[in-house]
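User: Sequence recovery, please. Input:
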């Protein structure tokens, strides 16, 4: 067998490389991956067979059958490693008086250990440039979560979570250093890659959007926000923060060196012909409300908002796939049963808010009841229940 160092990847996959030979362990069975990963990670000391039995079969009592199964698993592991070179399995996995050990005499570079070491060295470095270089090297090693083949396994899950947290913190420490040097493409790439593992982390979304705006990729920045908002609504039923929405509005600004003529302005402001109410984004809905409240304050006409909340039977939350279908269907009902002067928006993953100008409380209740009955009539087998709340929208003092 080649005596050059073994390069072992545990982040984003499981493979062992010796010289020009690469062995992909991640495509093997979970038990084989678990056995080899445990031996490699604990290569500095022997592991009792009893501990390996507990690792592979949990609380199942040790018996002649399971003892033979453990021997068979070790035989398969050695046979698998033989692909690295003649007799490699016997050379790498040693028997030690009731124990088993990965041969510590063979030099090993392990991406998990390199990643953790570089993160710690970067945190201890005195100079910003040195910190940035070390953290960039570390993050380059993080090609995915720890041992994805063993995702959720009790032995691997705590290590995977700790490494994800270390990667997140290192990323958040690195992004300001890149931005301070106006390395915007690297900032956008790093924040985007981290968002794949932490899709609900708003700070990562903000860094990616800011970098894309600096790169004059406003459309990409807008798509970044829209994808984040959709994920957040589906997962938590809430909207991103005001600061992130303000950054999104910045992506809508484009530079046009030509002045607009009154005719061009009118053409751009003219709404295309369409029936029913105005369905809009929640941020725009708030602006419409502010404007209508000011008008109602001058005219004295009543102004109400209605909240339509969707739940399952006995007010239990609906499953995500069912909720999305119900909300899409309910939007169609709202669009066709409100007046053209009314406005509606989704304000959470399970709620619509309606703006009802020139409408009394009783009329608002009637409108919502009409929408609810129309939904039940059109979708009689839907598990959804629609709850109504109508409130006056009063001018601020």
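Assistant: Recovered sequence (397 residues):
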């Amino acid at each position: 067998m080649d005596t050059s160092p073994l390069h072992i990847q545990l982040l984003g996959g499981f493979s062992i490389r010796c010289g020009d030979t690469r062995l992909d362990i991640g495509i093997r069975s979970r038990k084989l991956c678990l056995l080899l990963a445990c031996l490699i990670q604990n290569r500095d000391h022997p592991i009792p067979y009893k501990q390996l039995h507990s690792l592979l079969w949990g609380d199942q009592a040790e018996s002649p059958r399971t003892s033979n199964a453990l021997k068979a698993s070790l035989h398969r592991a050695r046979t698998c490693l033989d692909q690295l070179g003649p007799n490699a399995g016997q050379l790498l996995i040693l028997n030690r008086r009731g124990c088993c050990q990965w041969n510590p005499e063979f030099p090993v570079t392990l991406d998990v250990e390199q990643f953790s070491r570089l993160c710690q060295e970067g945190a201890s470095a005195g100079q910003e440039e040195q910190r940035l270089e070390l953290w960039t090297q570390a993050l380059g090693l993080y090609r995915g979560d720890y041992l994805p083949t063993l995702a959720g396994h009790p032995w691997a899950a705590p290590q995977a979570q700790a490494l994800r947290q270390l990667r997140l913190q290192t990323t958040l420490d690195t992004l300001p250093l890149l931005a301070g040097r106006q390395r915007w493409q690297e900032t956008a790439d790093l924040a985007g890659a981290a968002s794949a593992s932490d899709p609900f982390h708003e700070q990562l979304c903000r860094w990616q959007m800011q970098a894309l705006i600096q790169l004059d990729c406003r459309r990409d920045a807008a798509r970044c926000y829209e994808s984040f908002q959709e994920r957040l609504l589906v997962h938590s039923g809430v909207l991103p923060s005001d600061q992130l929405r303000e950054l999104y509005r910045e992506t809508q600004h484009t530079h046009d060196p030509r002045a607009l003529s009154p005719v061009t302005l009118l053409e751009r402001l003219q709404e295309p012909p369409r029936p029913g109410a105005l369905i809009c984004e929640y941020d725009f809905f708030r602006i419409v409300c502010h404007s209508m409240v000011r008008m109602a304050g001058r005219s004295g006409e009543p102004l109400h908002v209605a909240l339509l909340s969707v739940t399952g039977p006995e007010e239990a939350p609906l499953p995500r796939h069912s909720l999305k279908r119900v909300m899409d269907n309910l939007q169609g009902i709202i669009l066709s049963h409100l007046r053209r002067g009314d406005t509606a928006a989704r304000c959470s993953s399970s709620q619509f808010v309606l703006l009802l100008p020139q409408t009394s409380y009783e009329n608002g209740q009637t409108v919502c009841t009409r929408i609810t009955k129309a939904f039940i009539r059109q979708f009689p087998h839907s598990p959804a229940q629609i709850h109504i709340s109508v409130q006056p929208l009063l001018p601020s003092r």
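The chain is about 55% helix and 15% strand.
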